[in-house]
Amino acid sequence: MDRIRYSLVSRQENRVVSSYNRRTFHIRKLLYRYLDTISDIAQFRSLQYQTGMLISGYAAVQFFDNTVCPGSGLDVFVEIGRVEPVAKFLMEKGFVFEPDQDQLGGFEQESSMVKVLRTGNNDVHQLPVPPNLNLWNIQHPKNLAEIFNFVKDGKRIQISTCLKTPMAVILNFHSTCVMNIISHSHAYSFYPYETFEEGVEISIFAQWQLERDNHCATCEKYTGKGWRMISKPSAKAYFRPNSEFRNDARFVGDSGCWTIPLEPFHDQNEVVSSEHQALHISMHAKDDIVRANGWRNDVNGIGELMIFFDILSSGSLEHQYTIPWFSHPIITDGLDDRQLIGRMHDWCRAANAGSISQPQEDVKSRAEKVFYNALMSARFPCENNLEYSSYPDVETGRPLLDVLTKLFRILEHDPEVEISFLPYSWPDDDAKWLRRIRRPKLSRGIITNVKVFPSPHVFPSKDSIEKFMYWSAQRSLKNLGVDLTVSMSEYTCTLWGD
Questions:
Q1: Beta strands at 228-230 and 155-162: parallel, antiparallel or unpaired
Q2: Spatial separation of the C-alpha atoms in residues 49 and 183, rounded to whole Å
Q3: Which of 60, 72, 113, 415 is deepest in the core (most CB within 10 A)?
């Protein structure tokens, strides 16, 4: 993320960063761990283009993190109707199908069951959930058909076949840190800042997850490698400009994603077989059909991240796609897959723009900017950074922003806002009360101290400020651990509690 900011300084810095990215984020470096030759890698990427197969899982995390974990497998996701050419390619390269305890036959026999699913039996509620479903993630059983493992000389490639589209499985992963994909031409990280800058995985709240007793156990693979499992995104993450957590429609490759263009299939000085010379596969983003997929974020009332999407299928489309929930009907008559990319992006932008109301939003956006800048420059106790889980979350940030927005409307000029975090020793009785109202982190003794300093040219009456503070008290900021002070030149009003 620091490289991205550095690249915006000037053209020279941008060239330096671009050169570093080309050397560092090399898809061959990843695929060479599983495939033997440049030609094999090119053929694999060609299959990605032809079938819509995506790389995801821990291999994609390592690609973005520029790390190598010896012995880790390659996880790929493909529609159930397109798995045969992928499996055939792997077996031609010496990989052997390794059935699990419930896969009694060879790949051909097992894949024939998949064909039955594709040609008519889509009643997935009657299908057994694959027993190896919890190897490294939780996936919605409605979208996962079967998992096939192929091994060769200690290397493992796992093919997860999907009833509809691979994105429907990926968007149902257990947390944000594994929501990264690699197509034939680009790599995309959906929630990059928290994953690779903050080192946290934000869990995805979904009703079906409540039924799984071993949810935390499935995350141990990532917590054991340095990521911290967090139940909610922080207020700083949510209110950050172009935040990937906003309650908006999103699409693959949008401003919230970290997008890395991949190198061509072959370098200019490489000898290319006649078989591959005939391939003319576009590496341009406008031809990467995975970008036609979208979803909708919803950080709910208690600050937990939820992801919603529908499945779009049409007779004119070769693949199925995930789309956000829109308030208007979606018309795709006559659109092909590549035309859908631009149309999807237009739909998402229009839906997000339609959520903004003027002129009330002008004041709120100014308050939000000041609030975010204050969070970024916040002071911490003992000059040590807080744990991510102790940072104000969205549940705290939203009502606090509402309070600040109302104050901005009272004042003629935007005030200065200062935020600090103070240790506080709660009495035992108060700590028990905080745990009862589901505020256990407050019992650890962190208060969000917010001080507002209006412009010296502004002279609102003390009565108006006191009325504002009384209104603010009704927002139950005490329950959220917020101490609010408005400091005028002639008087100070402090809110602490109801």
A1: unpaired
A2: 8
A3: 60
